[in-house]
Amino acid sequence: MQKDLNIFIELAELLLAEEYKQPVAKQITTSSLYDALDLSLDDEGMADETLINNLKTIVKSTPKTASKSFFNQLFGGRIGKATLGDLLAVMLNNSMYTYKVAGPQVGIEKQVLKNISKLAGYPEKSDGTFAPGGSMSNMMALIMARDAKNESIRAKGLSSKMIVYTSAESHYSIAKNAALTGIGREQLRLVKTNDKGEMLANHLETLIKEDLKNNHIPFFVNATAGTTVLGAFDDISTLSPICKTYHLWLHVDGAYCGSVIFSKKYKHLVNGLKNSDSFSVNAHKMLGTPLSCSIIVTKHPGQLHHSFSNEADYLYQTDGDDFNLGKTSMQCGRRNDALKIWTLWKSIGTKGLEKIVDKQFEMAEIVRDYIKQNKDYKLYSFDDSISVCFNYKDIDPKELCTALYEDAQLMVGFGSYKNEQFVRMVTINSVLEKADILAFFRTLEAYVDEKMLKIPTS
């Protein structure tokens, strides 16, 4: 094992060097992937030296999500103490379903869940779990809401149309989960949004009344804290009274930006969160832990247990339900995703996490200021968002982002809202500084001037 650990350190050091030397990996097209790299699995094994060289080539060719040229996704960067926790979790290799096999790691997970619940404004006895990703967290919320509305569904299945409501700008997992849970995509209602992409409460209530009139069963509202494209926050304080009036479960999908609960300056963006029934947040996004670190908490711990517990004598052999986490999880075998957020939190404290969150908004403000001061740019975004959407010199954003990626200049994506398409730059990388933001624009502008606006000579 020690020999393999030494190999790992060698590869990790190579990766760190490559992130500076070649921050955007040179693209390998899908058509040439298996010719460019030896990814085959053969009857005979490969000697260590050959394997190491093979792995080095793969490391160099893999997208560098921790580099300061990566703005493509809703995650990025690398924080040492969080990475330390994840590496340690791999070495310990505990499964988190029982106290017998996880020991103090159960206490670590419970402490994270307890503190997230507290920051959300939930009662002391609230509970939750770690899920494989934000989509699964949303599915767990949907299942709890379904079962809370009709507890016989677990045994007898659906017998009537149950209705889900979500913003037209919400994450695609809501529609997907409606299909997977037997609710059905046709029972999903898309609520209209304002110019910022925030759900309109009056339209939500209109849809609910219409469904009640048709003898359907409204049961679940999904609010979003940080929509995928514009980074908008639904106004929970206007949605929760409607949910209370019509007895609907209110879930807040904070996968992207729910970590504002750590910030005194930006927590107002989720005002009313304490009145929701469940809340999910991805620590691998704004808090910068390695993938994946998805958390869901609820103020209804009994419902969490009711929806996901099952007896298994071969598994639950010691200790009480409170410390057998498999009874509140979608999964049985489950890796330890709590340790990485715990090591980070333990090392820098809640105040340190607050600084990480605030830094991302600070970087987004620098981006917006730069765009506003340059007549060649058009800004589509608004304050209090870490998704900054813009266009440059009226160049097709898809064409621009693709060219930057193919030529290994920058990794940045594009998006659209209300028939407008634009570049979407995400400032979620917590190690970014103002110099990195300015370097992004220098690279983009120089590339456009040299490669995309150059007039061919005759």
Form type:
globular
* Percentage of residues assigned to helices: 40-55%
Pattern of helices and strands:
HHHEHHHEHHEHEHEHEEEHHEEHEEH
Classify the beta-strand content into a percent band: 5-15%
Mean pLDDT value: 95
Concise description?
By secondary structure, the protein is α/β, with parallel strands linked by helices. It has helices at 2-21, 33-36, 48-61, 80-92, 99-102, 104-119, 134-149, 153-156, 173-180, 201-213, 236-246, 301-308, 338-372, 397-406, 434-452, and strands at 70-71, 127-131, 162-167, 188-191, 217-224, 249-254, 278-282, 294-298, 377-379, 387-392, 411-417, 420-426.
Notes on the protein architecture:
The protein has 458 residues and is an alpha/beta fold. Helix content is 43%, strand content 14%. It is built from 15 helices and twelve strands. It has a seven-stranded mixed β-sheet, with helices on both faces. The chain has a five-stranded mixed β-sheet with strand order 1-11-12-10-9. A hairpin with a 2-residue loop joins strand 11 (411-417) and strand 12 (420-426). The relative contact order is 0.14.
